[in-house]
Write a structure and sequence with these properties.
Elements: E1 3-9, E2 12-16, E3 19-23, E4 27-30, E5 34-36, E6 59-63, H1 64-73, E7 88-90, E8 103-106, E9 109-116, H2 121-127, H3 131-137, E10 144-150, E11 152-154, E12 161-164, H4 172-183
Parallel strand pairs: 6-7
Antiparallel strand pairs: 1-4, 1-7, 2-3, 5-11, 6-10, 8-9, 8-12, 9-10
Protein name: MOSC domain-containing protein
GO molecular function: catalytic activity; molybdenum ion binding; pyridoxal phosphate binding
Domain MOSC: 28-163
Length: 187
């Protein structure tokens, strides 16, 4: 697994059904290293601390491989890295093979896979199409949230080296499917 793009979002106010909503989902690639801190990525806007950021969701990684699936469903969307709200666009991140607790070194940081990303209406706002939320739920292409065990800079080209494996724990995809069932979404 290699970082293809590091992405940061600025605070943005948008109109959502007649009310102002603040979001950081409009992430764009940056050319300099980014600092992974204990509760977030330095300089990255997190507007909804209940669902993003914090110890267990400090960094969000998403697979570049998944872009192709959604490009077919949304051919008119500009698929700039970071479109899914990810801090790290990773060449081949597979939620069906990464278990909760698996730990990796990447750049100067050490990251532990914690939970899946559950989509919300802000993903629909980013795509300018609310269908993306259900389409996202109906896959296991949820991405991975990471806890930062050792803070540090990461940059494009840095590789994830696994240093701890937890096959006894559920995969990130398993957690996502369980959440989908709990919420009553069907495929």
């Amino acid at each position: 697994m290699k970082i293809i793009s590091t992405n940061i979002g600025e605070r943005k106010e948008i109109d959502w059904k007649g009310k102002k909503v603040t979001t950081g989902i409009f992430k764009l690639p940056v050319s300099k290293p980014i600092f992974l801190d204990t509760e977030d990525v330095k300089g990255d806007e997190i507007s909804d601390r209940e669902h993003h950021g914090g110890i267990l969701q400090a960094v969000y990684g998403y697979s570049l491989r998944h872009y192709d699936y959604f490009k077919k469903l949304h051919p008119n969307v500009d698929f700039t890295h970071g479109i899914f709200g990810e801090n790290l666009t990773i060449d081949d991140l597979d939620e069906t093979k990464i278990h909760q607790g698996d730990t990796f070194t990447v750049g100067e940081a050490i990251l532990e896979a914690t939970v899946q990303r559950n989509p919300c209406y802000k993903l629909g706002i980013r795509f300018n199409d609310m269908k993306i939320v259900k389409q996202f739920w109906n896959t296991t292409f949820c991405g991975v949230y990471f806890k930062v065990l050792q803070t540090g800079n990461v940059k494009t080209g840095d590789e994830f080296i696994q240093i701890k494996s937890c096959p006894e724990n559920p995969t990130i995809a398993d957690l996502y499917v369980a959440k989908r069932v709990e919420k009553g979404f069907s495929t």
